[in-house]
Design goal:
240 residues; alpha/beta; three-stranded antiparallel sheet; 8 strands; 50% helix
Length: 240
Amino acid sequence: MTDATRAGPVVTLDGPAGSGKSTTAREVARRLGFRHLDSGSFYRALTYGLLQAGIGPDRWTGLGRADLDAIGVGVEPSGEGFQVLLESRPLMDEIRSPEVTSLVSTLASLGPVREWLLAIQREAGKRGCLVADGRDMGTVVFPGAEVKVFLTADLLERTRRRLKEQGVTTPTDEQVSQEAARIRERDRDDSERKLSPLRRPEGALELDTTRLTFEQQVETILERVREVSTASAEDDRARE
């Protein structure tokens, strides 16, 4: 049943790198008229902010709340989602740089960082009507979400998608091999970290997108939302 304090349900999409979480979540949110929360952009923004402040990975394990506050990373509602900021300046493609991408998993493995961002993410979702994607949305950030989905895809397909995102439409065998190795390493880091490891949330719909069209995966999730919403409405009527 939908949380009475929310204006609408929370939908979570979790899964490994390249499984299609962000693009799918963004479209699902658009069709539902919900906001989209890309949790990865929060971690990327903080990674970028630390690097800009001259605080390298060798110093990250000693970071506390005051240190993270001082970086100046913020989040505000914007259009159909949320805009990440650094000292009130909107961050865009710079948080998708190869350097940030190579380091964001390291930062995300740190307890103080996850705790600091947890409060920000929950604040963003407290009113509901939200589609959130990441790696622990349904297990840790929004464990009470009304709809949970776990996206998967085989390694080759995820590699192809990542390269396409980077503008590489006809990759060489070497490019495919290198990107696949990076994704495999990210999978291992995300699944083996002690804090909030990548897991399929209990009760989540597991959706393998390897051979699905984008429209098929979006419609499958929308149908799940409709089913849960209908069941919730029927429960509410039965209690009246």
